[in-house]
Amino acid sequence: MLFWSVFGASIASALLPLINIEAILAVSVSQAPEHVWGLLIAATVGQMVGKILWYWGGMHVDRAPWVHRQLQKPKAKASLDRWHERAEGRPWFTAGLLFFSAAVGFPPYAITAVLAGILRVPFGIFFMTGLLGRGLRFWAVVFGTSSLLHLF
């Protein structure tokens, strides 16, 4: 039951960044340390399910007239063009940025997920870098937290 709760909370937190999955995961692992790996997997996969929705939204941004109009404004268009220039023909840069964002949270992963969709980053690259980055982030939260708890 805890597995599914963390999985659901992880999806919700991917869609609504105000929900802190790191805190939920740390508390869940402290309550059921024998299930640490299952909870890590639940959080990681759940986050990616939610981020795939952001990615898909970026791919289909032209279907939302208000967002499309916002992206046509000169400042937004110039920013998007700069990102397109940075990513075009540089798959390692793009993959590295996505991995870094997923692992560290800067730039915010929800924003890079949308940007990846807008820039048409191949889904496999988006998914694998996100899965690895989020997995590493949650591993650090769980094992960093458990290390700190053993100090007290």
UniProtKB/TrEMBL annotation:
One matching Pfam family = VTT_dom
Taking every annotated instance into account, which residue ranges of this chain make up the domain VTT?
A: 22-143
> What are the UniProt keywords, alphabetically?
Membrane, Transmembrane, Transmembrane helix
Taxonomically, the superkingdom here is Bacteria
Q: Where are the transmembrane segments?
A: 36-56, 92-119, 125-149
Asked if the record carries the keyword Glycoprotein, the reply is no
**Coiled-coil segments on the chain, per record:** none
- Provide the protein name: VTT domain-containing protein
